[in-house]
């Protein structure tokens, strides 16, 4: 149990030695609101994602660190100039994409089965324009059912649900291995 007599960074450093990492990344497209990116970094670090991939500009660390709950330094952040640059990276590394988008052909997350035969990246869209078509064409598409009167979650909330479900499914199929750096890592 962590107590508040340590700084946030001290608590993170203590927990890091036993933290799990999953072969999951999170990608977002140049948000309008820096808070959304900060919240994604925080969610990625909390759920054990390996990285956050950002298409477009990245605000300065001094902006994102407080928005991320001071977790900016605990997650790999990769930046891409365009959706095509991101797709080049995905293809060259044989990464599976799962995009959260309300669109034709999308499957409800409640019945979608994440495939861990390769690393995967969960993609969430821009607040107004969503996920670029070229990424959707190269992704499994899922949506989050919303039985209430609302029809669209905030992008950082959607990322939280996607990461939670991806980790939950991974845990059901887990195989434990130890990486060379002594950090526990889960692999399928």
Helix-strand blueprint:
Layout: H1 8-16, E1 22-29, H2 34-47, E2 49-55, H3 61-67, E3 76-80, H4 83-92, E4 96-100, E5 107-108, E6 120-124, H5 133-136, E7 140-143, H6 155-172, E8 175-178, E9 184-187
Parallel strand pairs: 1-2, 1-6, 2-3, 4-6, 4-7, 5-7
Antiparallel strand pairs: 8-9
By secondary-structure content and strand pairing, the structural class works out as: alpha/beta
> What is the chain-wise order of helices and strands?
HEHEHEHEEEHEHEE
What fraction, in percent, of the residue positions are helical? 25-40%
Number of helices: 6
Number of separate strands: 9
Mean pLDDT, rounded to whole units?
88
- Biggest sheet features: 7 strands, parallel
Radius of gyration: 16 Å
Strand order, main sheet: write it out: 3-2-1-6-4-7-5
Strand fraction band? 15-25%
CATH topology: Alpha/beta knot
Q: What is the global morphology?
A: globular
CATH architecture term: 3-Layer(aba) Sandwich
CATH superfamily: SPOUT methyltransferase, trefoil knot domain
How many separate domains? 1
The CATH class, by name, is Alpha Beta
Highlighted features:
Alpha/beta knot; single chain; two-stranded antiparallel sheet; 9 strands; 23% strand; alpha/beta
Protein architecture, described:
- The chain has helices spanning 8-16, 34-47, 61-67, 83-92, 133-136, 155-172, and strands at 22-29, 49-55, 76-80, 96-100, 107-108, 120-124, 140-143, 175-178, 184-187.
- With 188 residues, it is α/β, with parallel strands linked by helices.
- It has one domain: Alpha/beta knot, CATH 3.40.1280.10.
- The strands form 2 sheets. Strands 3-2-1-6-4-7-5 form a 7-stranded parallel β-sheet.
- Mean pLDDT is 88; it is low at 175-183.
